[in-house]
Amino acid sequence: MSASPAPSFQSAIDQAHRGEDLAVDQTSDLIDSMLRGDASEDAVGELLLALRAKGESVAELVGAATAMRRHMTRISHHHDVLLDTCGTGGSGSGTFNISTAVAIVAAACGVAVAKHGNRKATSLSGSADVLEELGVRIESEADAVAQRLDSIGICFCFAAKLHPAMRHVVGVRRKLGVKTLFNLLGPLCNPAGATHQLLGTSTPDAQTKVAAAIHQLGTTRSFVIHADDGQDEVSLDGTTTAVEVTSGGQQTLTWSASDFGLLPVGADALAAANPSESAAIIRRIFAAEPGPCRDTVIAGTSAALLLVGKVPTVADGAKMAAAAIDEGRASEKLAQLGS
Questions:
Q1: Where does the chain bind 5-phospho-alpha-D-ribose 1-diphosphate (predicted)?
Q2: What is the pLDDT of residues 5-44, one digit of tens each?
Q3: Residue 117 assigned ligand-binding role
């Protein structure tokens, strides 16, 4: 017979089953207990499933992220503006690692980037998987990650390495085999404290909640992205909606292919079955091969450049991104990251 959940967990589980949201501090304390290894797998699993069935609230995201941030290994740096392109994942689109390529091209345009990510969970290729294929050492210690960020202006923050306390919940998450609260937390817990985020979300509901959560947690300026075609990226197929979040509040921006000066691209043209295929696509893009994959990376990068104030419009951003690729600066930045 399984052990009974601790009273605080049982109370929260019952609360969620009644359809009541948990408070910020309450959620933070529960996640703290999980990340210290003090909670039983049964208690953790029951709570995560109860929150999933109810629908995770903004307060629960904020509380969980606050706890996660307390436990993560921080990356120090000197940058006043620092970009992350980590999204929530879970769109099921099967595309190559667009946001990872965008991070590298943005860095080639002179933007400091701390790309947060992990191995694949809900996708065919996680950012860690594709970077490993591209020759990047993803398992670096925190001081080496910080040194890379300061010396070349880009680093990879490997979630499995820099969130060591997550080892206490990895087993139960695997057993559950479904998306939970933790799947939404990656972009909210950048170890380098990114000031600007181009943050993809897989559903309009997740977009709304994550935008509200990141506003409460604090950001200089972020774009929380969701595309009409279901992609958690800036898409050239139909319309992409970006919720712009600053300390002053939120506003909504929309883009279509014509805003970037590019042709429409369907998601089927962006498919990659595994990290090896994804890496090969990124290498071809950085070798200046034209086509829909390149255009999609240019669109994402242009949104990132607008976000950090490098350009006044996404059309200007598209030109800057294209030049960084065509002049070999993106390829060079990847080589630096892998050296």
A1: 87, 90-91, 95, 97-100, 115-123, 127
A2: 555 999 999 999 999 999 999 999 999 999 999 999 999 9
A3: yes
